[in-house]
């Protein structure tokens, strides 16, 4: 037989007795405690909202695309994917049967033409350089002369300071003698005028030194400008020679065009195969510059870019390495582009397709896993935390909107 707990409740109609069991009361108390715990958990427990975006592994120095300069057949590849190459190393050959045969494409022909072009310099250019060299020499002499003048004036200042010091002592003695009526007004005034004259000479020398120092600054600036103009003329002359060489090669190229490596690096990808036909401007292979470090490039829609901050720690989940098995790496956002990139620019530079403009976000990999070997061009998903708040604010919009308004 169950125990009964009786509670007496009085009313206008008399005594009313409500009987409740102990188990019912215990259930009620436990329910209240659980409800309070849930409310406290929802109030203090925090939830971090994350944005999942697409990204790509990309070298920090970029990827160099080697493109064909003319249409023809890819007759030879001197390298293979993964090879390390040096600057100037032969990469491939393109056979263009429609080209002229007036020019023999070899190192000897290049050296001969370049030597001739370097030896041909316009008289006007040489005259300009000669005039500027003369001006440079004259300016250097003026700087030396001005420095010598300053040195002479500084010696004069030292002598004047000594004379002023001596004359100041003499004038003090004359003043004492004047007070005792040992000297006349004329003698006192003469001594005072001599002292004032020395001080004025000193001030004049100091002003002249300041003026000379200003002249030296102007002369040095003029000298730097002259040197820069000489270098610019020489560089321009060099550029014109190289441009002429390039034009000559374009007009009279050999049936076989050799493409060389523009810089040292590693062959990342060979797009075309030997024997295939390529058009001018087609990408044949891609090179990763030497010393490049892999980083992550992601693209964020403008509507979410305000939630992304530099220094944010993100999770990197590579498509080729499922994170459920291999785990994921971490990185830090180090750069966010100031303006969004257009879809065509993103596709041209990174090979990713987007329907609208996106901001570029660069991520530095900070925590790497030995089991994950990343290579440029590898795609991945990136979890970017945006903001953190209590769970109750996410469940009830009233609290969330109140925080936003604040």
UniProtKB/TrEMBL annotation:
Q: Where are the transmembrane segments?
A: 26-45
Per UniProt, the keywords (alphabetical) are: Coiled coil, Membrane, Transmembrane, Transmembrane helix
Which chain positions lie within coiled-coil regions? 122-149, 188-243
PANTHER family for this protein: EXPORTED PROTEIN, MEMBRANE FUSION SUBUNIT OF EMRAB-TOLC MULTIDRUG EFFLUX PUMP
**What is the protein's given name?**
HlyD family efflux transporter periplasmic adaptor subunit
């Amino acid at each position: 037989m169950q125990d009964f707990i009786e509670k007496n409740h009085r009313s206008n109609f008399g005594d009313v007795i409500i009987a409740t069991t102990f188990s019912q009361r215990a259930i009620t108390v436990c329910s209240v405690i659980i409800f309070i715990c849930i409310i406290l958990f929802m109030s203090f427990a925090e939830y971090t909202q994350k944005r999942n975006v697409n990204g790509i592994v990309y070298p920090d120095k970029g990827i160099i695309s080697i493109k064909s300069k003319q249409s023809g057949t890819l007759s030879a590849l001197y390298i293979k994917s993964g090879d390390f190459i040096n600057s100037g190393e032969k990469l491939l050959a393109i056979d263009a049967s429609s080209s002229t045969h007036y020019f023999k494409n070899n190192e000897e022909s290049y050296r001969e033409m370049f030597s001739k072009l370097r030896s041909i310099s316009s008289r006007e250019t040489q005259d300009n350089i000669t005039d500027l060299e003369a001006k440079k020499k004259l300016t250097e002499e003026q700087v030396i002369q001005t420095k010598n003048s300053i040195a002479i004036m500084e010696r004069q200042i030292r002598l004047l300071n000594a004379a002023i010091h001596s004359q100041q002592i003499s004038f003090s003695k004359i003043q004492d003698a004047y007070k005792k009526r040992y000297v006349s007004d004329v003698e006192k005034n003469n001594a005072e005028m001599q002292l004032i004259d020395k001080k004025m000479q000193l001030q004049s020398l100091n002003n002249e030194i300041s003026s000379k120092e200003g002249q030296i600054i102007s002369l040095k600036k003029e000298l730097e400008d002259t040197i820069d103009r000489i270098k610019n003329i020489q560089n321009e002359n060099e550029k014109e020679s190289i441009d002429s060489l390039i034009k000559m090669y374009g007009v009279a190229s050999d049936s076989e065009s050799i493409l060389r490596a523009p810089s040292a690096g590693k062959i990342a990808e060979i797009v075309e195969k030997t024997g295939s036909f390529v058009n001018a401007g087609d990408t044949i292979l891609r090179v990763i510059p030497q010393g490049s470090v892999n980083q992550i490039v992601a693209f964020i829609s403008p509507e979410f870019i305000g939630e992304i901050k530099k220094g944010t720690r993100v999770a990197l989940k590579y498509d080729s390495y499922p994170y459920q098995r291999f785990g994921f790496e971490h990185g830090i956002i180090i750069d966010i582009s100031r303006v969004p990139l257009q879809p065509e620019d993103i596709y041209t530079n990174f090979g990713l397709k987007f329907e609208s403009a996106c901001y570029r976000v660069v991520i530095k990999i900070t925590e790497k896993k030995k089991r994950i070997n990343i290579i440029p061009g590898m795609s991945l998903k990136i979890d970017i935390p945006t903001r953190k708040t209590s769970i109750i604010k996410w469940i009830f919009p009233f609290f969330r909107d109140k925080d936003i308004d604040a």
